[in-house]
């Protein structure tokens, strides 16, 4: 299963308007109008595969990052 750099996931979520709170090694992300809370706990400098899948599912569910300027 592919691995993903934690910093890239963090940067993506911040760019999408999520708020980050760090507690220990947990990166906790919330966003207005997004019901779910994302809790990313790295394994080394990498995000765990199931957490990457959670992030992807939230992006798709809420249509985050879609441009309406087309």
| SSE series | EHEEEEH
Please report the number of helical segments: 2
Instruction: Provide mean pLDDT, rounded.
Output: 90
Helix/strand/pairing class, anyone? alpha+beta
Question: In percent, how much strand structure appears in the residues?
Answer: 25-35%
Strands of the widest sheet, in order across it, are 2-3-4
What's the total number of strands?
A: 5
How much helix is in the residues?
Answer: 25-40%
Structure description:
The chain is globular, with a radius of gyration of 12 Å. With 70 residues, it is of the alpha+beta class. The mean pLDDT is 90. 34% of the residues lie in helices and 31% in strands. The chain is built from two helices and five strands; from the N terminus they run βαββββα. It has helices at residues 6-15, 49-62; strands at 4-5, 19-23, 26-31, 34-40, 46-47. β3 and β4 (34-40) form a beta hairpin. A three-stranded antiparallel beta sheet has the order 2-3-4, covered by helices on one side. Strands 1-5 form a two-stranded antiparallel ribbon.
What's the gist of this structure?
This protein has 70 residues and is α+β, with helices and mostly antiparallel strands. It has helices spanning 6-15, 49-62, and strands at 4-5, 19-23, 26-31, 34-40, 46-47.
């Amino acid at each position: 299963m592919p691995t993903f750099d934690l910093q890239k996931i963090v940067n993506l979520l911040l760019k999408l308007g999520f708020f980050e709170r760090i507690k220990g090694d947990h990166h906790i992300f919330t966003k207005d109008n997004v019901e779910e809370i994302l809790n990313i706990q790295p394994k080394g400098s990498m995000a765990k595969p199931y957490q990457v899948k959670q992030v992807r599912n939230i992006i798709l569910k809420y249509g985050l990052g879609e441009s309406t300027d087309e």
